[in-house]
């Protein structure tokens, strides 16, 4: 259920997967389930954003995207939420700052695909993000090399944990990030929209 604030208790390890989810699909689910397993997470919150500041295209209505996400996220450890709209934040750094203040003692982990690591340096206050919470990065087809050579990866090379240490990521002190190389589906929200299975508006 997306209504209300998600529950988070001190001592829990909670993954944060943000995005437009326009629409949510099996790739989001694959990342989430692998994150729960690899990083020993108690919960993962899907944060359906009002909009992406780096994208000019307007997403489908929020209620529609949340409803689709809830149809996909059929797992007891996944919570679909409109928390960014509730917080009134526009940028990820702001959202994380507000969440860490609102949920003291919760060990948050920011989850993202390797394609986002490539462009992370373009995000507002991106260093603040890396310095505040550990990050779990998942390989997507075609993005592995670019992600490893990205500006963020180079700047924080010394903070990278090996895959064999992934289960300790949530308890690690930021900056800390772990790159998980997975054989993943090439499905994407962009491809789904282009195929006409998710009409605009």
UniProtKB/TrEMBL annotation:
Pathway participation: Cofactor biosynthesis; NAD(+) biosynthesis; deamido-NAD(+) from nicotinate D-ribonucleotide: step 1/1
Record has Cell inner membrane as a keyword: no
KW Lipid biosynthesis (keyword) present: no
Catalytic activity annotation: nicotinate beta-D-ribonucleotide + ATP + H(+) = deamido-NAD(+) + diphosphate
Annotated ranges, domain Cytidyltransferase-like: 16-194
Keywords noted in UniProt: ATP-binding, NAD, Nucleotide-binding, Nucleotidyltransferase, Pyridine nucleotide biosynthesis, Transferase
UniProt record, GO biological process: NAD+ biosynthetic process
One of the record's GO molecular function terms: nicotinate-nucleotide adenylyltransferase activity
InterPro entries found in the cross-reference section: Cyt_trans-like, NadD/NMNAT, Rossmann-like_a/b/a_fold
SUPFAM superfamilies: Nucleotidylyl transferase (SSF52374)
EC number(s) per entry: 2.7.7.18
Family the entry assigns: Belongs to the NadD family.
PANTHER family: NICOTINATE-NUCLEOTIDE ADENYLYLTRANSFERASE-RELATED, PHOSPHOPANTETHEINE ADENYLYLTRANSFERASE
Role played: Catalyzes the reversible adenylation of nicotinate mononucleotide (NaMN) to nicotinic acid adenine dinucleotide (NaAD).
Name the UniProt record assigns to this protein: Probable nicotinate-nucleotide adenylyltransferase
Species assigned in the record: Limimaricola hongkongensis DSM 17492
Classification lineage: Bacteria, Pseudomonadati, Pseudomonadota, Alphaproteobacteria, Rhodobacterales
């Amino acid at each position: 259920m997306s209504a209300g604030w998600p529950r988070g208790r001190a001592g829990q390890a909670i993954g944060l997967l943000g995005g437009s989810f326009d629409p949510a699909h099996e790739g989001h689910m694959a990342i989430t389930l692998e994150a729960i397993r690899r990083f020993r997470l108690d919960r993962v919150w899907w944060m359906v954003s009002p909009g992406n500041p780096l994208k000019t295209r307007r997403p489908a209505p929020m209620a529609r995207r949340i409803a689709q996400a809830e149809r996909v996220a059929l797992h007891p450890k996944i919570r679909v939420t409109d928390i960014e709209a509730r917080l009134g934040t526009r940028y990820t750094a702001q959202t994380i700052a507000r969440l860490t203040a609102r949920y003291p003692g919760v060990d948050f982990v920011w989850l993202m695909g390797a394609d986002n690591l490539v462009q992370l340096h373009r995000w507002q206050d991106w260093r603040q993000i890396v310095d505040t919470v550990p990050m779990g990065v998942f390989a997507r087809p075609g993005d592995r090399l670019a992600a490893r050579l990205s500006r963020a990866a180079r700047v924080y090379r010394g903070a990278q944990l090996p895959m064999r240490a992934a289960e300790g990521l949530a308890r690690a002190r930021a900056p800390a990030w772990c790159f998980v190389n997975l054989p993943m589906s090439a499905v994407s929200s962009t491809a789904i929209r282009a195929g006409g299975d998710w009409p605009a508006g």
